[in-house]
């Protein structure tokens, strides 16, 4: 636990927003939102392809 506490404190001290420790390396969350949207659309596409493949074949 000592190592994780040390890492968290160092990340919070260097972060532009101290409350957001997980995204300390990326101050701009636009890339994260874009990745979430791409992953969501990819999941929908894979689901539809799987359903159509199951129905047709």
Brief synopsis:
The chain is mostly helical and 57 residues long. The chain has 2 helices and no strands.
Summary keywords:
mainly alpha, 57 residues, rod-shaped, 0% strand, single chain
Distance between the termini: 52 Å
Look at the structure and give the mean pLDDT: 71
For the secondary structure, the number of strands is 0
Q: What overall form do the CA principal axes indicate?
A: rod-shaped
Stretches where pLDDT falls below 50 for ≥5 residues? none
Largest sheet: none
Strand % is: under 5%
Judged by helices, strands and strand pairing, the structural class is: mainly alpha
| SS field, number of helical segments | 2
Order of helices and strands: HH
For the CA atoms, what is the radius of gyration? 19 Å
Helical content class:
over 70%
Descriptive overview:
- With 57 residues, the protein is an all-alpha fold.
- It contains two helices and no strands.
- The protein has a domain at 30-57.
- It is rod-shaped.
- The longest helix has 27 residues, at 30-56.
How are the elements arranged and paired?
Blueprint: H1 2-14, H2 30-56
């Amino acid at each position: 636990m000592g190592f994780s506490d040390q890492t968290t404190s160092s990340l919070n001290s260097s972060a532009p927003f101290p409350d957001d420790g997980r995204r300390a390396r990326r101050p701009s969350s636009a890339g994260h939102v874009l990745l979430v949207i791409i992953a969501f659309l990819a999941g929908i596409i894979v689901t539809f392809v799987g359903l159509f493949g199951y129905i047709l074949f």
